Amino acid sequence: MKKLLCLLSLLLFTTGCLQAIEQMTGIKVSEAINPVMELEMDLVFLDELAAMTKVNQMLLKRTPISLEDPWPEMLNSYSKDPADRDKKARKKYDACLTGLLKKDFYFFKFYNPALYFGYVGPGGTNALLARAIIAARATLIIEAAKEMGRYYEHAKSVVSYYPFGCKCPYYGQGLDRFGPGSQECRGVQIKEECTFFNLPTEEGLNEYIFEKKGLQTWVDLKMPLECIRVVEGENLGTFEEVFYTLLPDHIRDAVKMVDDEVQVAEADLEEIKARLKEKDLSEKATARLEKKEEELEREVETKSAIQQKLYKEATGTIEVTLEKVKKAKKLLEIANYINDGFSQISAAMMALTVKMVDDILVFAKLNTYQIANSMGYLVAQGIANGPDAKKRAKILAKRFAGLFINYPQVWGYAIAQKYQVSMYEDYLEALARMETKIKEK
Q1: How far apart (Å, rounded) are the C-alpha atoms in residues 192 and 178?
Q2: Burial bucket for residue 314 (CB in 10 Å: 0-12, 13-18, 19+)
Q3: Which pTM was predicted?
């Protein structure tokens, strides 16, 4: 986690300043950019962010909770620095997750970024300096994408029906239940209906973007229960199901209803805000979006006030038991994981926003023919894997057309998740603090 946030901070420093660098130094940095490579880097970031929001939805709405099952602790253990005894095993685990990442996102197996960073073409000192700046920026982007991708692959492995540790042996003491080759792993049946876990993430995402109802539908799509982890001990229900049982009976339904309303309004508002940052919006489009923004801000403010009042009442009227405290602590593990993940998403979206401002200067001139030419150059240099280059160029042309729609959708959804989880977390922490009072009685 710390490594990723550091990488993203450096990325912000080196991104968003291409025009300034060109003006101050005369170095034509933008001319050293290959638009296909930059578009691919934007897309892999965006796709990983979308995938993380989908996993969060599974954690909140589909994955069963059990007081005996340690899967919430497994989620958070990966975000912590490993003990000295586990450092070597952690490196092996990271390498295995990187292998899964290459299967899920086309970028990591189709391109050789090292060749792109190290390519020295014709030109004088200015051309070399331009390529050095691009290489420094791109290196940070790829390293951040790998780090965030591994975080995603870990969480995906935890919630999958496929026993944790069977694909990548874990290193945590007490959490390393299985390993590849064990009897439990050899007996696993691959479930064809569990496409999210069995097929590349990027394929499923593209299918919904191109052929079905869009990115948000893909994130919200309910995973078949047989595809989700089978928990040890008593199945108490999902995070949200268990959470609402911890609320006082007389306001439970009202809280759930306002939670849903606030999340929808918040997601819509953040999507509008992100769209208002787009370049070259017409005055008519800007005015329409600004009007919608004002309406949504009033709606969020009104509903949030009701929500906060209800949660305050819930905290003051709940009947606390040790059983409820145990459940609250288990749910806090999941809420903490999602909040930590949002720190990554937030930093990544900031970096992506600034980078895309740079890239728009290059992308503005792109068409299908130019994308194909840029791809051809990467193939010729050995940077891209040639056999599927034409197919990839067509996909990129379609993805580019929707890039500035998908981007605000992902951001809006992530913000709404964060806001809702923060409300859960505050209540759960208040409940967990009451444990001392119970024990004192």
Answers
A1: 23
A2: buried
A3: 0.83
